[in-house]
Amino acid sequence: MRHQAVGYGLAVAVSVLVVIVAITGQGGLWAWPDWQDPLLQELRLPRIASALLVGAALAGSGAALQALFRNPLADPGLIGTSSGAALGVVLLIAWGGAASFGLPLAAFVGGLLSTGLILLLSRVAGNSEAALLLMGLVIAAFIGAITSLVLFLSDDLTLRGAMAWLAGNLSGASTSPLGVSAAAIALALLLLIALGRDLDCLALGTDSAHGLGLSLAATRAWVIVAAALATGAAVALSGVIGFVGMMVPNALALVVGGSRRRLIALSAWLGGLFLLAMDTVSRLVVYPIEIPVGLLTAFTGPPFFIWLFWYRQRKVN
Amino acid sequence: MQRDAIPLPVAHETALSAFQIDQLSLQMGHKTILQSVNTVIPRGSLCVLIGPNGAGKSTLLRHLAGLLPPQQGEVMYHGQPVTQLKARQRAQQIAWVGQHPPSDCSLSIEDFVMLGRRPHLGRFALPKADDRQRVQQALQALELTTLAGQRYQQASGGERQRAVIAQALAQDTPTLLLDEPTNHLDLRHRQILMQRLFALTARGKTVVAVLHDLELAAKYADWLVLLHQGRVLRAGPPACVLDSEALSIAYDWPIRVVQESHGWRFDVLHEVNHVKASA
Predict the structure, then answer these.
(1) Measured on CA atoms in the order A65, A67, A71, A73, is the torsion positive or negative?
(2) Among A210, A192, A22, A176, which Cα is nearest to A102's?
(3) For the segment B218-251, what is each residue's pLDDT rounded down to a tens digit?
(4) CB B108 to CB A258 under 8 A?
(5) Which is higher by pLDDT, A25 or B67?
(6) Which residues in chain B have their CB less than 8 angstroms from residue A211's CB?
(7) What is the DSSP string of B210-221?
(8) Topology annotation, domain B17-278
(9) Cβ-count burial of B191 within 10 angstroms (0-12 exposed, 13-18 middle, 19+ buried)?
(10) Complex ipTM
(11) Is B106's Cβ below 8 Å from some Cβ in A?
(12) Cβ separation of B105 and A204 shorter than 8 Å?
């Protein structure tokens, strides 16, 4: 109990600190902001909100998908949302239409379509978790190939625009449909948290879950649609940001136990915080140049996983 | 023998049966698991499935639970094919406890038992006071109250087994199916478990359990089904099933059944010469 209180206190303190630094930090200067400043109102605050939302969406979906597939390496990228969204955006840029609302919409539609396709095809392949996992990998690779082909055939300008987006960054936050995405992510996260009990049942094994009245196909569809909704909205805000969905829930699972419901909620909280911290670093570390935050998370991912495996191994021995 | 003279009780009518199994067969590859099983399990009975390893006990139980759709034949539950029940509807009627307690679970024992309320809560509803009370009763019934806050993963084999059974009790179904529920349990908790199950049947619930301990089965069961090579060798009240010849055939080992004033005794005869000769 006392450990728990200390943990929560620490998490709240760190959250407040990260948000303060994100608001005040700019190019080596730390100053209390002028709240009337349009720069703050129209650029930085939306960006902070997007970072929190995207991180929460990715990490929350990751925590749910890892339970669904009973595999700690599962991630929002696995259900085809990210790759489908990427294809949608690349196609739109290649066609020359990249208006403010068109881009996120293309990402969203592309993501949901490819996830739907994977769900449909996994029925053909036996409708098990393994079938779904394999179908997800295969279709994601296939969609990735189409994306590469489109990029290969396009001119330099398109390529640059598309690559910047694919690397994942939050600098376009001011022009994205923040309200719609926020609503979608909030709805999806609430759904995932509500589905937490079913995911706990699933961890008991297929037969036991069945015995508790779970319809496996229905549970799977609910979780994947909710995760796709969250991921689609996140990709629409920030492009493709990898590893957050895998890293945050896995790191949390090492220190907190309890229900999947709790892990999803905590992952969403700390995922948002993590991405905001990363984005602040990406903004400030080589000021005035900004590193795409997706690159930063991609660089932190592999070392984290090597550490995770090392730590687990040590715990076993 | 005298036992043959005892008439079968008239529990065979559908209205009084919990399960009615008609011509149930299961073939997996070249192996026959179940072969034209025809039998009835009376409502409100404590029915124990006995028989050697590989006789088809677990498979039959999984059919009763609706976890395996019949390849051939039919399993009727309260006069209706069990596979026709919707998942949640079935889970409100029948609880099933498998042979192996799950190993991968980060919940506390209390939360673990609370999962048994899933069929009544559905996908989204939160547990109410009534659900909590039933969970407390289930924890109490299996002497888990003091362990309620402990993590399931850190519990011992026997404690896990009790938690799984408590989960099924919390499910509060008219019918309870248990596959070797006495696994991992010590002497005291075996007796406690069987007494609890017996008490359930006294309240009109049906319990079907797979057991290897014949003495325990004979002591508590009021209905036995003896399976052998995928067939029902004997079925009925203990007096009709517990017969030296039938048991010796089923287990392929000489067993002498002795009915004493306070219960049944099973003399497992040692085939000393046989063992030595083959060694």
Answers:
(1) positive
(2) A176
(3) 999 999 999 999 999 999 999 999 999 999 999 9
(4) yes
(5) B67
(6) 65, 67, 91, 94-96, 98
(7) E-S-HHHHHHH-
(8) Rossmann fold (3.40.50)
(9) middle
(10) 0.86
(11) yes
(12) yes
Cα of first residue to Cα of last residue in chain B, in angstroms, is 37
Q: Which among A212, A272, A218 has a CA at the least distance from the CA of A61?
A: A272
- Residues in A lying within 8 Å of B, measured between beta carbons: 70, 194-195, 197-198, 200-201, 203-205, 207-208, 210-215, 219, 222, 253, 257-259, 263
Query: Does the distance separating the beta carbons of A207 and B104 come in below 8 Å?
Result: no
CB A193 within 8 A of CB A265: yes
Q: Residue ranges per domain, chain B?
A: 17-278
Q: Kindly report the pTM of this predicted structure.
A: 0.86
d(CA A141, CA A163) in angstroms, rounded, equals 18
> Could you identify the residue written with the tokens 């008609």?
B22
Q: Does B33 touch chain A (CB under 8 A)?
A: no
Residues of chain B found within 8 Å of residue A215, distances taken between Cβ atoms = 87-88
Residue A234 near residue A107 (C-beta atoms within 8 A):
no
Q: pLDDT grade, residue B279 (50/70/90)?
A: very low
Q: A134 to each of A67, A79, A128, A139, how far by Cα in Å? A: 16, 10, 10, 9
* Bridge-based pairing state of the strands A29-30 and A25-26: antiparallel
* Interchain CB distance below 8 Å, A212 and B102: no
Tell me the average pLDDT across A260-280.
93
* pLDDT computed for residue B3 by the predictor: 42
B204-214 pLDDT tens trace = 999 999 999 99
Taking the C-alpha atoms of residue A197 and residue B125, their distance in angstroms, rounded to an integer, is 10
> pLDDT averaged over chain B?
90
Kindly determine whether residue B67 and residue A207, on different chains, have CB atoms separated by under 8 Å.
yes
**Residue B7 confidence (pLDDT):** 45
